[in-house]
Structures are given as structure tokens and as C-alpha cells.
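User: My instructor asked us to take a sequence, write out its structure as C-alpha cells, and then describe one feature of it. I'm not sure where to start. Here is the sequence I was given:
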Amino acid sequence: MSEYITHSRAETVALGARMAAVLAPGSLVAFTGGLGAGKTAFTEGLAEGLGCTDPVSSPTFAIVNYYRGSKPLAHFDLYRISTENDLCAAGFYDYLDQGAIVAAEWSENFADLLALENPIRVDIQRVDENTRRITIEGVTL
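Assistant: Let's start with the prediction itself. The C-alpha cells for your sequence are:
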């Protein structure tokens, strides 16, 4: 487990881009952290680092946003998904099976189930308005 401190949104995005460089196809990135912690900013960095061409936005209302690129990224919000059937219906496992990188916000809602997929865990804690404490487990940057 490694811990990083970022002091701006740009630094959080840059850390996500750095992590993208070491992800294998079909990797699951399981995010935890409160509202406004920086999960979407980190995912923006993942998308940049993976060569995705679509703009990144929070999947809160869409459940999943798919970003095309040399290594595609499926960005899920699991906050409003309540059953494994809903997870399947949203295509969660299909994206993994197709080799897309999957970034899942609010992963704690399915912690036991996602543990079976050997996720890379990223916890983002808000220290103050600009500072974030980011803990990454499961991959070395």
C-alpha cells in the first residue's frame, strides 16, 4: 500500500495518469472516498493516461460512462446500484471481460463481490479544500 498527498485537482489528475501506465487490460480500480473527494478527477487522469479521447464526467446519473481510446475505460457509479443483477445489467462484467479498464466509484457498496475481481483499491480522503490523501493498494506506481 502506498500513500500520496496531492495539493490540487491537477496533481490528483496527474496521479491518475501515472497509475494508468501500469494497468493491464481488464483491471478493476475500486474507489472509496466521500462526495467531492476527487474520484472523478483521478479517473480523468486514468482516461488521459490510457489515451481515451472522450471528455470525463461523473457517471452519477448515467451509472456508467464509457471512454474510447487505445485502452478503453468504463467509469461506473455504484452508489445507486443495489443488487448484483443491476450490476450485471449495467454491463459491469462485460466491460471487464472485453479488456476495458473499469473504474468503480462507491465500490464499498459491493466490496465483497468486487473482491473476487482482485481490484486495485484507491481511497481518496479530503484533507482540506485542495489537499487529498490518496491510498493505493494492489499496484506499484
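For the description part of your assignment, you could build on this observation: Residues 28 and 119 are 5 Å apart (CA to CA). Try explaining in your own words what that tells you about the chain.
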